Amino acid sequence: MGRTWDARSYDRVGGPMTAMALAVVDRLELRGDEVVLDAGCGTGRVTEHLLERLPAGRVIAVDADPDMVVTAREVLGRRAVVRQADLTELVLDEPVDAVLSTATFHWVLDHERLFQRLFAVLRPGGRLAAQCGGAGNLSQLLGATEAVASGDGWQRFFAGWSRPMRYAGPDETADLLRAAGFTDVRCWLQPRPSTPDEPLEYLATVPLGAHLDRLPEERKRPFVEEVAARLPEPVTADYVRLNIDARRPA
User: Fold this and answer.
1) Any idea where the domains of the chain sit in the sequence?
2) What Å distances lie between residue 40 and 101, 151, 195, 200, 225, CA to CA?
3) What count of Cα atoms within 13 Å lies in the side-chain half-sphere of residue 36?
4) Closest to 27 (Cα-Cα) out of 130, 125, 134, 121
5) What CA–CA distance (Å, rounded) separates 171 from 167?
6) Which residues fall within 8 angstroms of residue 241, CB to CB, at 6 or more apart?
7) Which CATH class is domain 7-138+165-196+237-247?
8) Are 228 and 203 contacting, i.e. CB atoms less than 8 angstroms apart?
9) How many CA atoms lie less than 13 Å away from 144 in the CB half-sphere?
10) Ordered per-residue pLDDT tens for the chain, 250 residues
């Protein structure tokens, strides 16, 4: 993962992300007694909804960010095993029946390795249901951000830097999933614009966090304000989500 996170702020303002994630939880076929990996569990709020669908099952929740892991452990307690791990290096003590992932894969640049590791931790017949930022995600917001970042007073902070996100398309993703061994692959894009209740904090915590990692503390708020000023009112995150369904052959 190519950025740091403020888990407390994310837990407070991350409602739009949770709302998009719940549709993925509902999409995952479950009996209720499976072992499921939540790959990129964040603060554990989506994991709570997943646990509701597993009255006789278990969840292994994994995130790469240490602050997210601490918060998820507080939220979930003994209801789930929470681990800090890089998904591209993931090894589990036991195979899982299914993998759920929301708002995570776009923070992993090596999708080839990512899908290989997820395939490896699934049982034969196991299912993958995921959603992340896809091709065209946040194009308006990131356009405004790049306009600010390239301007006077900001340019020096971003010289030689590229955003640590990968917004892939459905065709290239499907090809990588099949190359990793998955079958029954289905990938599609879905526009999901979202208007946050607290736009400045939301921008700082979620879509602009990687940019703010480049700035000294006193420059972060002015940067977010300049980006917001370039966006139409009300401030809207123009999300395009990449949905993924796939299966490891039985």
Assistant:
1) 7-138+165-196+237-247
2) 6, 34, 23, 24, 29
3) 35
4) 130
5) 12
6) 20, 131, 132, 133, 134, 137, 189, 190, 191, 192
7) alpha beta
8) yes
9) 20
10) 467 898 889 988 888 899 999 999 999 999 999 999 999 999 999 999 999 999 999 999 999 999 999 999 999 999 999 999 999 999 999 999 999 999 999 999 999 999 999 999 999 999 999 999 999 999 999 999 999 999 999 999 999 999 999 999 999 999 999 999 999 999 999 999 999 999 999 999 999 999 999 999 999 999 999 999 999 999 999 999 999 999 999 9
Residue with tokens 């420059």: 219
198: which 2 tokens? 């607290």
DSSP letters for the chain: --S---HHHHHHH-HHHHHHHHHHHHHS---S--EEEEET-TTSHHHHHHHHT-TT-EEEEEES-HHHHHHHHHHHGGGSEEEE--GGG---SS-EEEEEEES-GGG-S-HHHHHHHHHHHEEEEEEEEEEEEBTTTTHHHHHHHHHHHTSTTTHHHHTT---S---B-HHHHHHHHHHHT-EEEEEEEEE--B--SSHHHHHHHTTTHHHHTTS-HHHHHHHHHHHHHTSPSSP-B--EEEEEEEE---
Give the pair of three-digit tokens for residue 45: 């709020």
Alpha carbons 20 and 58: distance in angstroms, whole number = 23
What Rg, from alpha-carbon coordinates, does the chain have?
A: 18
Enter the tokens of residue 222.
Answer: 């002015």
